[in-house]
Amino acid sequence: MEGYKLSKDLHPGEDVVLYEGYNHKVIYLGTKGISSGIGAVDVLSYLIVDNGEAFLVDPGGYHIFPFLVFKISKYIPLDSIKYIYFCHQDPDVCGSLPMWKDVCPQAKIVIGELWVRFLPHFGVSDISKRAIAIPSEGKHINLGKTPLEIIPAHYLHSPNHFNIYDPVSKFLFSGDIGIALGNFSYLVVDDWLEHLEYLYTPHRILMANNKAVKVWLNRVKNRDIKAILPQHGAIIVDKDVKNFFKFMESLKCGTDLMKD
Ligand SMILES: [Fe+2]
Ligand SMILES: [Fe+2]
Q1: How many Å from the N-terminal Cα to the C-terminal Cα in the chain?
Q2: What's the 158 CA to ligand 2 centre distance in angstroms?
Q3: Where would a tag sit more exposed on the chain, N or C end, judged by fewer CB atoms within 10 A?
Q4: Which domain holds residue 202?
Q5: CA 119 to ligand 1 centroid distance, Å
Q6: Which ligand minimizes its atom distance to the CA of 160?
Q7: pLDDT tens column, 207-225
Q8: Closest listed ligand to the CA of 93
Q9: Total structural domains in the chain?
Q10: CA distance 211 to 155
Q11: What is the pLDDT at residue 1?
């Protein structure tokens, strides 16, 4: 039976199956609080499982690696991870890559084409065998029986940054778009106006400009999206998806705010 678990009282420090359908699951790995405990920015990591194959979304930095191995092992054996995806090149996304490439030698590393030649700096010596380079226009990757869509989101904030749309759960994994920073303790947004305060500053500073935002909005805004799952902050659900798009549409950010 298909079902969502996106209630407002989910604990951000606990793993949870956010969506479960026929042979398809999306799991939040309970990563919030681990990184802030050592003074680093917190990350949200996710796992998509379809027909026994797994796709790890943004595994995060160096120090959360053992925690993630433990959490993922509750759900699937590590050798069923077929893809390890990095939405862009930052250390809060890729810091654990050197360990993951060794622990999951069968897994392909999925990352934007601009960043593939940076992979040897993480110890990946055989990029032609290990990496799947996402072209700048995006691509589909089949996980089990589901074609995941990798959607360009360039300059928001990285010049080669991507989102994933899962057509089964209707989740948009938005990387550094939709991120929120601040002292709050929920996993799923409840009070939109309160959450806007946490969204505003990172978007104003990190997003390149309103033109890049509009290009991205045109790619995503008419899709059937149940929830936006960013790499930091909190999950945006139901009617707040449209509220978020409205916020982005009028956002002045990055180079829009530069003075001569
Ligand atoms: Fe980033
Ligand atoms: Fe990030």
Answers
A1: 58
A2: 10
A3: C
A4: 3-257
A5: 16
A6: 1
A7: 999 999 999 999 999 999 9
A8: 2
A9: 1
A10: 10
A11: 62
